[in-house]
Amino acid sequence: MMGERALKAKPDSEKITINLGYVDLGHIDLLVQDGFYSNRTDFIRTAIRNQLERHRATAEKSVVRKRLDLGISHFSREQLEAVRDAGETLEIRVLGLAVISADVTPELAREAIASLTVLGTLQASPAVRAALADRIS
């Protein structure tokens, strides 16, 4: 048993909203109705995956060129303290998910992070986001 405190699971995806024309939406519904896809979301996810696969080589070259870390990057209080204590700062570049631990103070974030580029999602406290606002691109 995990104790009395329940753990809240973080989602492995992010919700987005898109606007589609009525005719495009009708075509999607027709394909769902005919059994090609289980629902609208299934169609949209498949379309996105197909486009990402189509452009995979170009995207991979861009990841290398821009020196992006691909996937999930987690920055703990201990890691950032070690960077700060060494007199260094981080230039963080992530394609995917960047997580700055909830126990990182705004002061520590400013002392340890010189710049932050996230193509995807940044999870950080509102206070840390505000402290890094001028360093986020």
UniProtKB/TrEMBL annotation:
<protein>
    <recommendedName>
        <fullName>CopG family transcriptional regulator</fullName>
    </recommendedName>
</protein>
<dbReference type="Pfam" id="PF17723">
    <property type="entry name" value="RHH_8"/>
</dbReference>
<dbReference type="InterPro" id="IPR013321">
    <property type="entry name" value="Arc_rbn_hlx_hlx"/>
</dbReference>
<dbReference type="InterPro" id="IPR041088">
    <property type="entry name" value="RHH_8"/>
</dbReference>
<dbReference type="InterPro" id="IPR010985">
    <property type="entry name" value="Ribbon_hlx_hlx"/>
</dbReference>
